[in-house]
Amino acid sequence: MIYRKKSDLEVSPIENCMGGQGTVKMEKLLHGPEEMLGKGRAYVRHTLNPGVSIGMHRHEGEMETMVIISGKAVHTINGETRRKRTIRHLRTRGHLYR
């Protein structure tokens, strides 16, 4: 079991993440694949302030989970756009995602 305090997490700013707008704040919660027993490449928390976005990208052979703690999100999966509000879970596998 791995325990980390919030104060132990390093925030990495990502400018124009995958062609998106603004700066995404990324914190690595687990360092993959070594801390994920070879079952993933990343387990991170992204913080997006209003107006910040992550550009269109692809997930093939892997899954992405999103939990919206506050605010709203607009996401597109395989050309279908949806709006999500707080405390929603979105899981995608092998889709074009924005």
What do you see in this structure?
This protein is mainly β and 98 residues long. 0% of the residues lie in helices and 43% in strands. The chain has strands at 11-15, 23-30, 43-47, 57-58, 63-67, 73-77, 80-84, 89-93, 96-97. The strands form 4 sheets. The chain has a 3-stranded antiparallel β-sheet with strand order 1-2-3, with no helix packed on it. It has a two-stranded antiparallel ribbon with strand order 4-9. A hairpin with a 7-residue loop joins strand 1 and strand 2 (23-30). The N and C termini lie far apart (32 Å). The mean pLDDT is 84.
Percent of residues in beta strands? 35-45%
Largest sheet: 3 strands, antiparallel
Structural class given helices, strands, pairing? mainly beta
Mean pLDDT across every amino acid position: 84
Secondary structure tally, helices:
0
- Write down the Rg: 14 Å
Helix-strand pattern, N to C? EEEEEEEEE
Care to give the gist of this entry?
The protein has 98 residues and is mostly beta strands. The chain has strands at 11-15, 23-30, 43-47, 57-58, 63-67, 73-77, 80-84, 89-93, 96-97.
Secondary structure: elements and pairs:
Elements: E1 11-15, E2 23-30, E3 43-47, E4 57-58, E5 63-67, E6 73-77, E7 80-84, E8 89-93, E9 96-97
Antiparallel strand pairs: 1-2, 2-3, 4-9, 5-8, 6-7
